[in-house]
């Protein structure tokens, strides 16, 4: 094994260090957050830090970088209280990645990258029409992380839309591999996935057991 | 598209709802957190909520469920200040899943599931010897999430160990698919991954571009 310590990575060139540290934490989701500003300009941006906070109530968080680095999404969410999260599929991966470019606030990223804004009843923010699995959140809390001026933004799940061909399995599970939802790692790498196994709920006095296909 | 709303999922059976809500947020890492209590009993538990907080300083967070539901890891980290995060590979996926069983505090999960605790110089917590990519964190902050009594636990990266065969690419990127690191979804599903593409840093005035293989 090779050991790495802060004394080593602090000497690295900035992008080398960012690639290394960002890819170390493992695979993650990459989703498009849709929001809209007070002038009515939609915003679309990729985030790879969605995190499950709880199921009842259904709370979902993401990490927003410092305001100077990523100002628009968090400003829109703060002002409007609503936002959407849209799964990314390989069919529009390039367009999704392009939303990470630093467009000025007056630019509508849906138009700039070639995706379609879709407004659905009851949600004051745009969805991505091309996405097969998407949901709307209402802002519950923005928790500042003072260590590095980032934010944990927490929303409550208010509405979910799932393509008719991708409905939940018998136990509620969504087979995201069959939906072609991509996963990501580091700053710029995207993957397709293949199911290894599902396992039964683990108990101390029982051997580990694979779930039969549902 | 099929629509789902809170009025619908609040009527669902608890595990159906948990499967649905947990799988909705997308693919995620699944890692083993190693810690040790004040009596010297090691603890090993799977967490699927690792989240990158920042690269400089290198800060990594995870969500700990309410103390009543998941008491040992957060208590050990609070008391000791150190913990390890260990990638899971398909070669020991069953053992890793079994750590999610609710063992009493006096049980050493390494022994209970058949993994090997490894103590490396400078880190006051056990690593998983079988893991090819692992790192140590020192606790920086535990942020309570009052909405549902969970916690965002943030550590600073202090030491990284990577198998000699899996060293960083020319730009610092770690090819986790080649490491056989698994990814997860929902409560119990595990996947292998296959690279689709890496993309170049996106700029507003340039078309989206795939990175050449490094």
Biggest sheet statistics of chain A: 7 strands, antiparallel
What overall form of chain A do the CA principal axes indicate?
A: globular
Using only C-alpha atoms, the radius of gyration of chain A works out to 19 Å
Helix and strand pattern of chain A: EHHEEEEEHEHHEEEEEE
Distance between the termini of chain A: 40 Å
Q: How are strands sequenced across the largest beta sheet of chain A? A: 4-3-7-10-11-6-5
Helix content of chain A: 10-25%
Quickly give the structural class of chain A. Answer: alpha+beta
How many individual β-strands of chain A? 13
The averaged pLDDT of chain A comes out at 96
How large a portion of the residues of chain A is in β-strands, by DSSP E? 35-45%
Q: Give me the number of helical elements of chain A.
A: 5
Oligomeric state: homodimer
Query: Which two chains form the greatest contact, residue counts included?
Result: A-B, 113 and 114 residues
What does the model show?
The structure is a homodimer of 214-residue chains. Chain A has 214 residues and is of the alpha+beta class. The first copy, chain A, contains 5 helices and 13 strands. Chain A has helices at 6-9, 14-24, 72-80, 93-98, 109-113, and strands at 2-4, 28-29, 31-36, 42-47, 51-55, 58-64, 82-87, 117-118, 127-128, 133-145, 150-162, 183-185, 189-198. Chain A has a 7-stranded antiparallel β-sheet, with helices on one face. In chain A, strand 8 (117-118) and strand 9 form a beta hairpin. Chain A is globular. The mean pLDDT of chain A is 96. Chains A and B meet through strand 1, helix 2, strand 2, strand 5 and strand 6 of A and strand 1, helix 2, strand 2, strand 5 and strand 6 of B. Strand 11 of chain A pairs antiparallel with strand 1 (2-4) of chain B, so a sheet runs across the interface.
